[in-house]
Fold:
Amino acid sequence: MGLEGTTSARAYAEALRNTDATGAVQRDRHAALLGTPLLVVGVALAAINLRPAVTSMAAVLGEVRADLGASVLWASLLTAVPTLCFGLAAVAAPAVGRRFGMARAVGLSMAVLTVGLLLRVLDGSWVVLGGTLVATAGIAIGNVLIPVVVKESFPGQVGRVTGIYTAALAAGGGIGAALTPPLEQLFGGWRAAVAAWAVLSLAALLLWGRAARHEPAAATVSGAPPAGRSLLRSPLAWAVTGFFGLQALFAYVTMGWLAELLVSEGITRTTAGLMLAAINLIGIPISLIVPRIALARRSQSGWITGMGSIGLLGVIGLILAPTAAPWFWALLLGIGMGVFPLGLGVIALRTRTAADTASLSAMAQGIGYLLASVGPFLFGVLHGATGSWTISLWLLVGVLVLELVLGWIIGRPRYV
Structure:
């Protein structure tokens, strides 16, 4: 989510400030947070927590299913929950920010995440599903609001702080996948290993409580910026939305099911977790380097389709010879997932005003993530129905081909 701070955060911030029915703005708890070094640490620690709830469970999904006696349908629902929450959050999170202010809203997201991580290990399959829903609801709020904090509190350092945020986000996904299998062996079961990540989110909550301080209240301002126009009739807006949803679908199918696929092919649980970690960690250099180059060009079509094609080769490798070069396939998949920050950057490049950026961002993330939630569910259901991963992987090939087509379209220099 790193580049969201440079694409739609400003528009979200304006929406959060300008919500009074009379047009007046109260700048007390809605004032920007003080951009201190401690706040940078708070942003990074919060960002680290935005992926382990997903990747930690994926790394031990087989053991969870076996212990609970859960079906493939249940596992499919479990892997679909995060993207479903993320889509709903694109609409709901700004309202949370308006109600509580940024300091409290982000703190609330960490608190909800902590509760969900603990709740989901207390009982059977439906408690696990419900707790994951709670945890990812907390993540979803942070996904949207933390980049707003970066934009508001560090206006002259957006690139640097966004880079820190992006790196922490990718690192969190990586360590969640890599460390959970060893923790399972250390603690003697998946429940303690999965619950252990609540310690990290609790630490983020406590640090955030000290780091997040609003600036002194500013003078009341009248009026509000013009509302963004509806983009539902714009073919380009729908292309951006489709691309965003398909790349998210690919990413969350990979994070949710790759470890299980590799284990079923004879790779150890620990090694599969390390491969999933590597896929996430590849995103650190990609997010820091590629967008700066690609987004400065007139067209991004070549970069988007090039990286997407590399991901497509990784999926085909898994179909034809999954154990021949699994680390290489993982590398290709990680590069393919690197189109995510480019998708966020394109949202800003294809709009002329902040209001339109907000509208396109809400449309792309809201509808896009809801579309993406179908992917992990359908991927698992097809595997359960056929007893093989082949059909599910070929479905993913079709998704990536369509993503390439839409990526070429949205990369061309036009406006919604």
Notes: Confidence is low (pLDDT under 50) at residues 1-9, 11-27, 218-226.
